[in-house]
Specification:
globular; about 35% helix; UDP-N-acetylmuramoyl-L-alanine:D-glutamate ligase; 21 strands; six-stranded mixed sheet; single chain; alpha/beta; 3 domains; 15 helices; Rossmann fold
């Protein structure tokens, strides 16, 4: 039975290339554990960037064939995507090695530090990164375990989603999609928002109720009606729409790729886009204040904030066409990403690749409503076919169904089944003053796709 960070020395991760798994693996290596792992994407004759960066940290990587699990392995870690039928899981059982899920291990790690958990349907990775940067800038030497790489850490040649600091604070991204958020008992818990995503609202309300009960201090976004109901004390909450929260954002403006606003009168300026990023920064500053960091220090830090992997990531501008890559994948996030790009240019052409047939079916009406509500007359929405990651999914829905729903609302919507045909098809729609926004998640090749679009773009 593994109940403490001290109960194991040689953990092995099955599916170590995943963002959540690689973050914990790097953290454990950073505190002195002998970490190893495997992944189905690791092939002996193929270069894999994640594998190379893990090995550079001293983490041994193996193909997913069981060869990495030995008699010395004293813990096997699996993600929710790893089924019991996987050969490595079977080998671990034969050797009587304890098996824990990623979320269980993260809860054990969180219990070993003063942890700040970032929860909510949208904005978790960005807020986690912002708070970490603030605490680091303030000299608190925090640690971080996140679902996305920070550009500031990626620049050091690392994956960027984990770092071990000498201080007492650990900042983690707490995921509600699999319900694992209820396992954490943080010093400070944050609730950013509650929107339909992987689960229905009533299920999410129950999950976040437990999350609040498990948090010593709980901070909520009073601008979000459902989140506001979970308030523990208004003085530690935040808002941008005039509630009685202790931390209030005002005077928001966006000039191209820069946003400006004030928090309790203190001016903030960031190289980001979108009101949702003001909200994320407001959350981070409010949390930092709970650790004793002044708002002015947060403002100084966030002025230098470099962003995270595939969140409004600007690839560049060619002849007036801005190309922006974004992780947006649920209805609210897609709408927010489109809105954030609208102040940049008079026309936004958004391309989206939905992931999973079940999630797309579940959120079909929400996608149509949210996207339709933000499109300006000159904007366009394009979609390619749903990303299929394998398994036993029922393929009874297509991205074209969403496009037809949008067309029925008289929105300029286009379906291009194979994304490799997208650039040629969209070419005549581009202008010398527009944004080409690429959206999607879960598909590990999306970053490369965005780079190919940028490289092949000719206007």
């Amino acid at each position: 039975m593994i109940s403490s960070i001290n109960d194991f020395k040689n953990p092995f991760f099955i599916g170590i290339a995943g963002s959540g798994m690689s973050a914990i693996a790097q953290y454990l290596k950073g505190i002195g554990k002998n970490v190893s792992g495997s992944d189905r994407f690791f092939n002996a004759d193929e270069y894999n960037e994640t594998k190379a960066k893990l090995e550079a940290e001293g983490i041994a990587c193996f193909p997913q064939d069981g060869s990495g699990i030995t008699n010395n392995t004293d813990l096997v870690v699996v993600s929710t995507a790893i089924e019991d039928t996987v050969a490595e899981v079977q080998k671990a059982k034969q050797l009587n090695i304890p098996i824990v899920k990623r979320s269980e291990l993260l809860a054990i790690i969180a219990a070993s530090k003063k942890t700040i958990a970032i929860g909510g349907t949208s904005g978790k990775s960005t807020t986690t990164a912002m708070l970490f940067d603030i605490l680091e800038y303030a000299g608190l030497q925090p640690s971080i375990i996140s679902g996305a790489g920070l550009v500031s850490i990626i620049k050091q040649g690392k994956i960027g989603n984990a770092k071990v600091g000498a201080g007492e604070w650990l900042v983690i991204e707490a995921d509600e999609s699999d319900g694992s958020i209820v396992q954490y008992k943080p010093e400070i818990g944050l609730l950013l928002n509650i929107d339909k995503d992987h689960k229905e609202i009533d299920v999410l309300l129950d999950i976040f109720k437990t999350y609040k009960e498990n948090s010593k201090k709980f901070v909520v976004n009073q601008s979000h009606p459902l989140a506001k109901e979970f308030s523990q004390a208004a003085k530690q909450d935040f808002s941008w729409n005039g509630s009685d929260a202790g931390y209030k954002a005002t005077d928001f403006s966006q000039d191209g790729l820069v946003i400006s606003f004030k928090i309790n009168g203190v001016p903030f300026k960031m190289n980001l886009v979108g009101k949702h990023n003001m909200e994320n920064a407001l959350a981070a500053a409010a949390l930092a204040a709970q650790t004793g960091v002044p708002l002015a220090t947060s403002a100084e830090s966030l002025n230098r904030y470099e962003g995270i992997y595939r969140r409004n990531q600007v690839l560049g501008n060619k002849n007036g066409v801005w190309v922006i890559d974004d992780f947006a994948h649920n209805p609210v996030k897609c709408a927010a990403a489109i809105q954030a790009c609208q102040p940049i240019a008079p026309k936004v052409i958004a391309w989206f690749q939905p992931h999973g047939y079940g999630p797309t079916r579940f959120l079909r009406n929400d996608f149509v409503h949210e996207i339709a509500s933000v499109l300006r007359p000159e904007d366009e929405i394009w979609m390619s076919e749903i990303f299929y990651a394998g398994g036993t999914a029922v393929k009874d829905i297509s991205a074209n169904d969403l496009i037809n729903d949008l067309k029925a609302l008289n929105k300029p919507a286009f379906f291009i089944e194979d994304r490799n045909d997208f650039l040629a098809a969209v070419g005549p729609h581009l202008t010398n003053n527009c944004v080409l926004l690429l959206m999607g998640a879960r598909d590990p090749s999306l970053e490369q796709f965005a780079k190919e679009v940028w490289n092949k773009l000719t206007v």
